[in-house]
Amino acid sequence: MHTFEVKEDFLLDGKPFKIMSGAIHYFRIRPQEWYHSLYNLKALGFNTVETYIPWNLHEPQEGTFDFENQLDIQKFVRLAESIGLFVILRPSPYICAEWEFGGLPAWLLNEREMRIRSSDPTFIEKVARYYEELFLQITPLQIEHGGPVIMMQLENEYGSYGEDKEYLLALYDLMIKNKVTVPLFTSDGAWEEAQTAGMLLEKDILSTGNFGSKAQENFTELRGLHQRHGKKWPLMCMEFWDGWFNRWGEEIIRRDPEELAEAVGEVLKLGSINLYMFHGGTNFGFMNGCSARGRKDLPQVTSYDYDALLDEQGNPTEKFFSVQRKIHELFPDIKQSEPLTKTSLEPAKALLKEKVSLFSIAASISQYQHSKYPESMEKLKQNYGYILYRTKEPKRSGEEFYRVIDASDRVHFFLNQTKIATQYRDEIGEKIICKPNEEQNQLDILVENMGRVNYGHKLLADTQRKGIRSGVMSDLHFICEWDQYSIDFSTLDHIDYKQPWIEGTPAFYRYELAVETPADTFIDLHEFGKGVVIINGFNLGRFWNIGPTLSLYVPASVLRKGVNEIVIFETEGEWGSELNFDKQPKYKEIQEG
């Protein structure tokens, strides 16, 4: 059994220990792929793996907890241990991570008077209930119990959000109450203001820095701050950003492998490191996060490739080998190995078998609720995805206008099943001019939640409540009596494809792919507009032809030998009669500016 302490150095069994860690998020990688990624981290020569823990997945509905299959954190940690890796856990309520709402559960938004990430008693009460379940899973994995977990995080980059020390103390008390015994840490930007706001000096909790370059400069500032508070803590970069995430409509971000290796070497000469990310993985389903720039929310793409040392598929990149060489140069006695590399499916095609309009089957694949005024997603107990609002309006003149007031994030407006307008961001709320052709006209409004912000002040903004928040106006009055269909993407096996397909409307397209031996592949979606892909009941995530990604990664574990069913929900009316599967992802060149 080992011991681990934080003194003037990190001490493993009483001896100085340099933490060489890489981030692998178990929830972004299928369980069948965990071993591959963890093995490659060890092969790099590193000794530790770090992972966040997302509250929104582990408590998807208030009071309902899930720690199975992809969310089996115990299995992931024990697998890391079997490979010879120690583990750093980051179980804070908020994780950022470019993850939907920073890992906070969407159902928190129904507590309109509650302040998240604060000492608000209601918020602390909800965290406490979650922690009671979570720490039953992870406290037995601590090093003093013979497990591999050496440290846990208190809160994540809180110094870039708040300075509520009562909140940090409440989290500390909850962790101690739930039998956490390993050293705790905070992680913030390395500059003084962020560190001071995010530290918890009263409990002697280690503060670490997050940065992606200039280690000498950042560590000098961090050490100076420690010394001014009378601390002689070891230096650690808890997030060394070796790449970056990507947003829809923006250029792919890349970093030179040799430059990265030199920058990693600079960190390791001075302290310890956690590479963020070692393997990025995928924002499956509706779990992509969203940045905030001024008034605009900027959703991130499904791929979390991150230009990391392993690509989205988990295979080593040039960065892996550059950093591996640097590790050998600095620490020639560290054991390194050849990394594992996966094979890919040979190029293949899937043919369209059936198609049907959403308008023809909405009632059979949705949770239905009626209300006088349209309700937000959260009030309708829908956290993610799409919601269809429907009402009837009499014809009053040859030309009329409507406005969707206060909605997020993207709106399709239909009159009698003909698309009249698509609105996004600042366009929402503008006049929609219609020419009604019936005495009673059907209005359909499809609203997509494109992902909640994961960082900054807009966590508190009302725009994180999705769907239609205020209502829909005809002329100058709000329209009443709405049917609301919360689309359930977990029950698509009930789709009745015998119902009509209507050109130009949101629709479901079913394809079949024959596979002899399942292997990783990428589904090419450049002919399609926008939507999501479901393979054999598993939600791969979103696609959008504005790029920069024009494909989705398909792990081998999603496929099966024989016939595979691919269902595409597409909202723009752009589709193809066949799907191509390739060995490499497909990108769109984005012209900046």
UniProtKB/TrEMBL annotation:
GO process terms (BP): carbohydrate metabolic process
Residue span, Beta-galactosidase 1-like first all-beta domain: 374-487
Protein keywords: Glycosidase, Hydrolase
Pfam families associated with the record: BetaGal_ABD_1, BetaGal_gal-bd, Glyco_hydro_35
Glycoside hydrolase 35 catalytic domain location: 10-328
Catalytic residues, chain numbering: E157 (proton donor), E239 (nucleophile)
Keyword Hydrolase part of the UniProt annotation: yes
Molecular function in Gene Ontology: beta-galactosidase activity
Keyword Hydrolase: yes
Domain Beta-galactosidase galactose-binding: 506-564
EC nos: 3.2.1.23
Coiled-coil region: none
UniProt catalytic activity: Hydrolysis of terminal non-reducing beta-D-galactose residues in beta-D-galactosides
Protein family per UniProt: Belongs to the glycosyl hydrolase 35 family.
Protein name, as recorded: Beta-galactosidase
Source organism phylogeny: Bacteria, Bacillati, Bacillota, Bacilli, Lactobacillales
